[in-house]
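Hey forum,

I'm writing up a methods section and want to include a predicted complex as supplementary material. The small molecule is 2-oxoglutaric acid. I've pasted the protein sequence and the SMILES. Can someone with a working setup run it? I'll credit the forum in the acknowledgements.
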Amino acid sequence: MMVMGVEYARETKMLFQSLMEAILESLGFEEKNTHNKTPKTNQESGNDNYHNKREENYDNIKKDIGDGSQLMVVNCYPPCPEPELTFGMPPHSDYGFLTLLLQDEVEGLQILHKDHWVTIKPHPQSFVVNIGDHLEILSNGRYKSVMHRVLANSKKSRISVASLHSLAFTAVIRPWPMLINDENPKRYKDTDFADFVQYITTCDSKHKNFLESRKLTDIYT
Ligand SMILES: O=C(O)CCC(=O)C(=O)O
Ligand SMILES: [Fe+2]
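Reply by user p_vandermeer:
Happy to help. Structure tokens for the complex are below, copy them as they are.
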């Protein structure tokens, strides 16, 4: 069981990394058209210029993603006698860039698509990949994190395993400087794990989501 868990963690991490490479490419990041020189001195490391340059280097981005965080969550939903009165999991979007989700054969997961809740039918041996809040922030809104929920049911129990991936817990997540210009102003505040923890311990998370709290609302359309 333990070995299977470790294998699963490794495989999802590798899959996450290759998906992120494709996503970086779609955002215009390529080895050949990004800076290769990274300022090294402590003096430089204290200013924004250092961070901008570091983030524009493809190898640095890939390394930060490879060294990033991974949270594994096992969800068990027992049968519920009155499923219409509750959710297995209320509507939310995920922490992180991408979530790789394995669900058993019992239906329950729904995503919000064009204001409608759509059931995601389980496919054996396959992952559902959900975009999380950090990818929306990092891409300055080009990728949208997906609202999803889990319905309860009265007959069968259901199990899912979610693997959530982001940068290190100490890292600041912010719109990539390369994606910000006059036509695309910065749309999200810088954020880190401490902001997230503070948010979930102080808000009524059933009615709002974390991402809403990070939007620079005056310019967001
Ligand atoms: O159980 C599911 O299908 C979804 C679980 C989920 O959304 C989560 O763990 O964040
Ligand atoms: Fe989720």
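Some notes you might quote in the supplement: The domain at 69-213 is CATH 2.60.120.330 (Jelly Rolls). The beta strands are 69-77, 87-92, 98-103, 109-113, 116-119, 128-131, 148-151, 158-166.
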